[in-house]
Amino acid sequence: MKRYFRELSVLGALLVVLIGLALFAPAFFAPQPLLSLVTREAPTLVVACGMACIIITRQIDISVGSMFSVCSVCAGLLAARGWPLALVLPASVGLGALFGVFNGFLVAVLRLPSIVVTLATMVTLRQGLNLVRQGEFVNLPDRVQWFGLSQTEGQLVLVSTALGLLVTLALAMRHVAAGRYIYAVGTDAEAARLAGIRPQLVTMLVFVLIGALTGLGAMMNLAQSPQVQPLTGNGLELKVIAAVVVGGVAISGGRGNLWGAFAGLLLLACVSPALTHLHVEAYWEKAVHGAIILLAVIADGLRSRQSNR
Amino acid sequence: MSSPLLALRQVVKNYGGVRALRGVDFDLRAGEVHALLGENGAGKSTLIKIVTGAHAPDGGTITIAGQLIAELTPAISRSLGIACIYQQPALFPDLTVAENLALRLDATTVHARVDWTARRARATALLARIGAAISPDAEVRSLSMPEQQLVEIACALGSGARIVIMDEPTASLTQKEQHLLYAVVHDLRKNGVGVIYISHRLEEIFALADRVTVLRDGQSVGTHALADINEAGLIRLMVGREVAQVYPAAQSAPGATVLSLQGVGCNASGVHDVSFEVRAGEIFGLGGLVGAGRTELARILFGLTPADYGQIKLAGETLELSSPQEAVSHGIAYVPEDRRRHGVVLELPLEQNITMAIHRRLFPTTWLSFNAERALALDYIRDLAVKCAGPDAPGGSLSGGNQQKVALARWLATRPKLLILDEPTQGVDIGAKTEIHKIIRRLAHEGLAVILISSDLPEVIGMSDRIGVMAHGTLRAILPGGSDPHTVMAAALGTAA
Questions:
Q1: What domains appear along chain B, each with residue ranges and CATH number?
Q2: Do residue A194 and residue B366 have CB atoms under 8 angstroms apart?
Q3: Rounded to a whole number, what is the distance in Å from the CA of A291 to chain B's nearest CA?
Q4: pLDDT digits (tens, 9 = 90+) for A148-175
Q5: pTM (predicted TM-score)
Q6: Do the chains contact at A180 and B363, CB–CB below 8 Å?
Q7: Which one of A48, B5, B35, B360 has the fewest beta carbons within 10 angstroms of its own beta carbon?
């Protein structure tokens, strides 16, 4: 169990928060508000899965927030034009994957640093969206919200989609050759190359993966409200990176897993409702987030110093 | 006679269990060029590191200009007038030549005003003194490797060094630049500087040096005035040992030709016109000195630096190897030299290290069963007698010899036709070395064609069925296994002894 110590300690912290809430604010566990909270985090979880993969590859993608916004608005416009959802969904995923191809090409083939490339795509997409849409909201037809199902049914569909994806990807990272490539490339790209793996191809495909997952997340977000606001993805990148790092994925690549990222996301997501229920001002949310991230990073730092000794 | 500039007495240095220096005596007089000669791994670099203060000796004394030195750090060494010119110059590539010289030579405080005129003037003067046509305003990045070396030499001169160490200074120089360098060395000697000169080129040593000390297995086997010794004598000193270890004997006649090279070369890596054949069940040794082009040749065969010309045939099929993936899919396996960086991923568990190279043979979405993976790993751990806590122990927890076995297992799992081993026993203790030798011989016996690159002369002679000796990027000779070490060394040095 020593190997999963990091993931288990995040899980432990999450349990402590949940027990605290059960004792001091049992209202938190009322089924409908809890389901709504979890549903709101479902798109974030999908993007976080992609982010975990990309950080394990020793890359980063900070353009997810902008991609998310653009995919949301485009999907919304298509839906408003009367496209059936069965076509809007692949369109959104495909658009995200296309952005991923672009980022991945620049990073893997032209060997540019991913932080600069995705910073550029982040700014370009965000400002491009502003320019074209002027901040206008997209009103969605009724059939889009909750996919035309009842609210509870729709929420259950979204949550189970996100969880299903998490389980699939987490198992794939361990049990499928492609997942192993990702770890190998993230630990040592040159060693992976000497073992016959193509690091460039792997990097490229991971960027496509995170793009596609972001497109899917956008779609899952779209289904939760009657309209799309164009700033919907702002700040998503920070939230997702924070969740992944808190969950024990090493920013230096090659270490960590999706379960940890999941636990990290839940821990961060619990902060806001916990503060509300404990009657602390909501302004503290970001401060608490910051403290959790710092704590996680310090724990990693101490651990790697220990193992170097 | 006055006391020597530098005197080492009974210097000992151990790295872990490896005894790099076992009591070496070395003298350097003022105004002398003292050559240091020895095989790879004989202890030359270690000796230099001790004199420059990079590593502290485990025993013995160092006397500089008659003064016993208690502690030598790089800073103290420099302040005592010791300068070292490395093969790979350690300059700041984005700064100009004048700035680089100033950074090395000026001990200024952070708020001191920078006198650009004086800096440039000094740089010009120093460069003129060694006859180098380099502008002091040139960025170091834009200079060629030999030009950078000349800047290093200017630096050594400017610091008023009394002891200058040159580590293979002519390895990358053209003929003209070499003569420039020789002139600088003569100039240094005339000014009473002591020069320690390391080189594999015997003719150079005879032309330049006054005395020579030969190191072998971490010991000095003699210091001679060059007037008193000839090339054959030097080679005898360098090799001079019996092949003490017992190597497993060849057990069967080699089978069909597996690999054949016809005039293969690559301009980028300096390999040219290499032709040889390796047959199934045969161990083909590649001997030579560091920088002779052996690893570069292996990288060509593994598709890492594709050949520019020539023909490579594997089992009769002509191959265009332009990536490791192609090499692997044709049944070529390469266990690289830098085991800790490239052979074994230290963070990953053994089982994943072992199965790393076979995953690419599977469809990328194939489900990997943990049990099957573990069973495979356990098979190899047992077969190669890897000493480890278990298949889930990280690669970094193993000793060097066991890491090498894991690197080997990774490639055996791909069931290759041709196995290229690059320095498989470097830094491995003697027990594990014997085990690895037995494994290699057994693999050959099972029908594998093996290319064994080794700088360990007895190993390459004892293990190989045939030995290809490389020098200056090409194959100089193919000798039978068990050849006289002197013949092999002479071929590696490029002389006709």
A1: 6-239 (3.40.50.300), 258-493 (3.40.50.300)
A2: no
A3: 29
A4: 889 999 999 999 999 999 999 999 998 8
A5: 0.75
A6: no
A7: B360
